[in-house]
């Protein structure tokens, strides 16, 4: 099989030496790694079709990979796997300003999509924390979210079409540029969030929006976390949907300030970063109402960015949270338990109690506006006893999130890290339905086996 791959792609596009394979044996998820058998770099959907046919013939697992920034182990290889890296499929094929769409290959970096749209006076809203290095193929495969998810939704909301190569090598196009299309099953959405288990994405047709004319950024500080949660409820109850509504706890605030030096108040118990956008008058009006609501609900201070440079500086406070926390301990495990907004205060208190109960260091930040929290475990994977306590605490946190009507993942995906909890969330009937879909589209089980549910 390796000889056939070298003949197909050329020796420069097939890696087999151990030292070359090491970077492809892990992703952004802590404590998960496995060397693959080989790594290949195709340039076209046709080459991917041939690769999958070869892999199926040789019963070789195939794990599709972009930049490897995933946080659920979705692109970690299984033993003997072929890693199919799409980074060389990196062209922006079309920007259609008449239909507000962009056609791209899966290896295009998310930030480049945003910048290309921005240069045309358009807007691509999804902004995962890794957008400067993550690829759109991975964003689609994981249905990535981001800071702007409260107002603008997640990746799924901006995918109008996909080209997908199936396990048998078939190439399918799903969707089109039509705003309305109800012909047949919605197969396109089946592949969004499928984590590489159903097919390999080779083209993505994205929806774009007109660029917002104005933006206002506010930073609200609180002496009590409950007051921050009440502010969020008050903003939503006032029928205001900000572009972003982000939360940092005390530990995260101090780490971010030490890391990024953006002027955060070190005595704060909680902090909300709020951004509103749209027509200048509307953005100004919303910012004023949000400021009043924050003060009425216990904010000790509310600061409004005076200009774009100051707004970018404040946004850095949230976007650098993971990097800042990762400096504290050898291993950083970033989770994403999500609950209804009304349950946020309960969930955060439970995380704090769980950390104390198991003698663990857990910082919490996240997307308060949509209930998506990131409890972040600061630990050391070489400390076996502590890692056991981490696993126990993690299970308790997910159990509690589910008891509040939440979900085990709001944006990171299931992958390897969350699959033990999926049956509990879905129930037996829905879980079996997932397995049926997988068996139908990938009967030999070669596509990213062992992710989402156990390999069979």
Topology:
Blueprint (H helix, E strand, L loop, with lengths): L1 H8 L4 E2 L2 H4 L16 E3 L4 H13 L4 E4 L16 E4 L6 E5 L4 E4 L5 H10 L2 E2 L12 H7 L6 H4 L6 E7 L5 E5 L11 H5 L8 E8 L1 E2 L3 E9 L2 H13 L6 E6 H11 L9 E9 L1 H17 L2 E6 L3 H12 L1 H5 L5 E4 L9 H14 L3 E7 L4 E8 L4 H20 L15 H8 L1 H14 L15
Helix pairs in contact: 1-3, 8-10, 13-14, 15-16
Summarize the structure.
The chain is an alpha+beta fold and 456 residues long. Helices cover 36% and strands 21% of the residues. The chain has helices spanning 2-9, 18-21, 45-57, 110-119, 136-142, 149-152, 187-191, 225-237, 250-260, 280-296, 308-319, 321-325, 344-357, 384-403, 419-426, 428-441; strands spanning 14-15, 38-40, 62-65, 82-85, 92-96, 101-104, 122-123, 159-165, 171-175, 200-207, 209-210, 214-222, 244-249, 270-278, 299-304, 331-334, 361-367, 372-379.
């Amino acid at each position: 099989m390796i000889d056939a791959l070298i003949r197909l792609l050329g020796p420069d596009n097939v890696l087999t030496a151990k030292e070359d394979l090491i970077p492809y044996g892990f992703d952004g998820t802590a404590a998960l790694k496995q060397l693959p058998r080989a790594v290949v770099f195709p340039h076209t959907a046709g080459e991917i079709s041939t690769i999958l046919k070869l892999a199926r013939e040789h019963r070789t697992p195939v794990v599709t990979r972009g930049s490897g920034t995933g946080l659920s182990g979705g692109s970690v290889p299984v033993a003997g796997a072929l890693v199919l890296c799409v980074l060389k499929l990196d062209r922006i094929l079309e920007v259609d300003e008449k239909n507000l769409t962009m056609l791209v290959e899966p290896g295009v970096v998310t930030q480049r999509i945003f910048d290309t749209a921005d240069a045309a006076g358009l807007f691509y809203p999804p902004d995962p924390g890794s957008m400067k290095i993550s690829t759109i193929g991975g964003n689609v495969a994981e249905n990535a979210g981001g800071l702007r998810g409260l107002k603008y939704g997640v990746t799924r909301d901006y995918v109008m079409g996909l080209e997908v190569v199936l396990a048998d090598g078939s190439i399918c196009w799903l969707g089109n540029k039509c705003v309305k299309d109800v012909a047949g099953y919605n197969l396109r959405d089946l592949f969004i969030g499928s984590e590489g288990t159903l097919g390999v994405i080779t083209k993505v047709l994205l929806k774009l929006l007109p660029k917002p004319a104005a933006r206002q950024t506010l930073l609200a500080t609180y002496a009590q976390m409950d007051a921050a949660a009440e502010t969020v409820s008050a903003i939503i109850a006032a029928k205001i949907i900000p572009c972003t509504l982000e939360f940092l706890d005390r530990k995260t605030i101090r780490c971010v300030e030490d890391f990024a030096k953006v002027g955060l108040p070190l005595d704060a118990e909680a902090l909300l970063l709020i951004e509103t956008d749209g027509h200048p008058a509307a953005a100004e009006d919303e910012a004023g109402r949000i400021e009043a609501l924050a003060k009425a609900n216990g904010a000790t201070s509310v600061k409004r960015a005076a200009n774009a440079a100051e707004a970018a500086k404040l946004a850095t406070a949230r976007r650098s949270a993971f990097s800042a926390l990762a400096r504290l301990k050898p291993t950083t495990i970033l989770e994403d338990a999500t609950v209804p907004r009304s349950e946020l205060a309960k969930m955060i208190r439970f995380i704090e109690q769980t950390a104390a109960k198991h003698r663990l260091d857990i910082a919490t930040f996240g997307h308060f506006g949509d209930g998506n929290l990131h409890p972040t475990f600061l630990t050391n994977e070489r400390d076996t006893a502590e890692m056991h306590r981490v696993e126990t605490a993690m299970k308790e946190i997910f159990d509690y999130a589910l008891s509040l009507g939440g979900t085990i993942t709001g944006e990171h995906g299931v992958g390897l890290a969350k699959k033990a909890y999926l049956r509990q969330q879905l129930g037996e009937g829905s879980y079996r339905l997932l397995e049926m879909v997988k068996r139908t589209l990938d009967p030999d089980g070669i596509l990213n086996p062992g992710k989402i549910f156990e390999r069979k």
